[in-house]
Amino acid sequence: MRLVLISDTHxxxxxxRLPAGxxxxxxxxxxxxxxxxxxxxxxEWLADQPYEHKVLIAGNHDFLFEREPQLARSLxxxxxxxxxxxxxxxxxxxxxxxxxxxxxxxxxxxxxxxxELAARWALIPEGYGLxxxxxxxxxxxxxxxxxxxxxxxxxxxxxxxxxxVEGPGEG
Length: 171
Description:
Blueprint: E1 2-6, E2 23-26, H1 36-47, E3 53-56, H2 63-67, H3 69-74, E4 80-82, E5 86-90, E6 93-97, E7 101-102, E8 110-111, H4 115-121, E9 151-154, E10 163-166
């Protein structure tokens, strides 16, 4: 199974040239301000992507998913796995998604450090973990320029270690 991992596209998804894969994971910040037109445009783009599976998690720029979650989800293609404190298993691989972050300015999905944020993170089931080093899947830099390649990971059916095919890094 080949995973293509991205985030932080900030309305620039139509400029991306994504590599082939089985699963596209967008880990948030696909809009700049989370407006209805932005989410609609992203949903239309996502519908056109040729991946067998598409996994989506909202980020702190994706306000519509916090303020009007039913409307936001209605703007996504039906076959997208939108994760909100939830999981999906695809080809035997489990994905967990949650948008929460420690309070940062006035962005979406902010929670104060302490019991409220800990309770959200405690929802993550046993068995999830991080293998090796953390990877930044952000496509844009701090000035919202498209500079990084997607991270592409190949997983073998036999259960061997993941193989990083592409990224991260300047592209």
